[in-house]
Specification:
Dihydrodipicolinate Reductase, domain 2; alpha/beta; nine-stranded mixed beta sheet; 398 residues; 21% strand
Length: 398
């Protein structure tokens, strides 16, 4: 691990011959993203699914394999189930994950890990006590774009990283036809839950996971939130802030301006500025978004230009064969696959419990709009470095 706590992920390993049994608990809108991508990973065996809505579980297994479990206790009691993938509503994440850990199951949870830091910390400690794995989405860190960007930063293509501009502005959601959105199986997008959770808790992790992997944990930050489109939603809809602006400082010394929201026109870009060049990804939600490099150029005369023409970097990992045909490609199954590989090898997944807890801590601070610069408490950290097991995580082959 680098001294700044930054890390490099690799595409999930696929041990030959061995498989890990996985069950999906919760078969709503997001479950289709997972189900469609599971065939990419031969070491993951989909044992089935459970949902309180029996029809949703039935349609999931009909599409993606396994059997529909009759109740949650049946899932927990099945010795062939090693990993529970928790896709329940956010309000149930803590309860479902805790029950699974108590039953001796590894848990991969949709974001966020829990609704509060104390609940999430309890889950992390419980997993550690019982020798179990615990991870949280998102897993876009395994995408072609993310892998290529992390490699470029790690290889020093732009020199020392100084500044990042990160955005997850999704457009003005209140003006979109969100009531018409359906998954592959026809499950409606749960907009009431989404807007109640808020743009930060739903989306911050997509940028934070990349940033923390590149630059180490956040050590200082400031944040401000606002609710600007409250009058554009149905009267009974519970709302969280729809704009969040943050300033983050990482252990490496790199700083970041982060914008998240449902008001501004869509912008899902990430730009990393170094002392020798600039790297840009136009859309972090697209697994194969190009990674563009602009190196410093020698110039003369009265000009503001100092960068060469942008060049696209070759991807360092191949594309996934099985993908979900939608407006975005999020490689959601990669996190489950990485946990399964880690379980087989007796290691920690890249998206470890400590990593996930730190991302949640920063997300909660952004969501709460803590406006004063302050030191960030780093759970399970030593000298502002995320503590991992094993000490040297898997890295992409160079």
């Amino acid at each position: 691990m680098a001294n700044d706590g930054s890390r490099h992920a690799e595409a999930p390993l696929e041990p030959s011959g061995e498989t890990v049994g996985v069950v999906f608990v919760g078969c709503g809108y997001a479950a289709d993203f997972y189900g469609a991508t599971m065939p990419n990973y031969q070491h993951v065996e989909v044992k089935g699914a459970f949902d309180v809505d029996e029809q949703r579980a039935a349609t999931f297994v009909a599409e993606y394999g396994g059997r529909a479990f009759s109740d949650f206790d049946e899932v927990l009691g099945d010795p062939d189930v090693a990993i529970v993938v928790n896709l329940t509503p956010v309000s149930q994440h803590y309860t479902v994950s805790k029950a699974a850990l108590l039953a001796g199951k590894h848990v991969y949870s949709e974001k966020p890990l829990a609704s509060s830091l104390p609940e999430a910390t309890e889950l992390v400690e419980l997993a550690r006590e019982r020798g179990l794995l615990l991870s949280s989405a998102p897993s876009t860190i395994f995408s072609q774009a993310a892998q290529t960007l992390l490699r470029a930063v790690g290889d020093g293509l732009i020199g020392k990283p100084l500044l990042a501009h990160a955005s997850l502005d999704m457009g003005a959601l209140a003006f979109m036809p969100y009531t018409e959105w359906r998954s592959r199986r026809g499950v409606p997008w749960p907009y009431l839950d989404e807007v109640a959770n808020g743009c930060v808790m739903e989306h911050a992790g997509y940028q934070l996971s990349w940033l923390v992997a590149m630059f180490g944990p956040v050590v200082r930050m400031a944040a401000h939130t606002s609710l600007q489109l409250a009058d554009k939603w149905p009267g009974k809809t519970e709302l969280a802030p729809d704009i969040s602006l943050g300033f983050l400082e990482f252990a490496s010394g790199t700083v970041c301006r982060l914008s998240i929201g449902w008001v501004a026109p869509a912008d899902l870009s990430l730009t990393v500025v170094g002392d020798q060049g600039v790297l840009t990804v136009s859309d972090v939600w697209q697994a194969s978004a190009p990674v563009m490099l602009q190196r410093h150029a020698r110039t003369s005369g009265k000009t503001n230009a100092y960068l060469q023409e942008a060049e696209q970097l070759p991807f360092v990992v191949p594309p996934a064969q099985h993908r979900y045909d939608d407006t975005h490609d999020l490689t959601v199954g990669a996190g489950v696959a990485d946990m399964a590989a880690a379980a087989l090898k007796g290691e920690q997944p890249f998206l470890s419990a400590d990593f996930s807890l730190h991302v949640l801590d920063v997300s909660l601070r952004l969501s709460e709009g803590r406006g004063v610069m302050e030191d960030v408490a780093l759970p399970a950290c030593d000298d502002k470095k995320l503590t991992l097991t094993p000490a040297v995580p898997r890295t992409a082959a160079r």
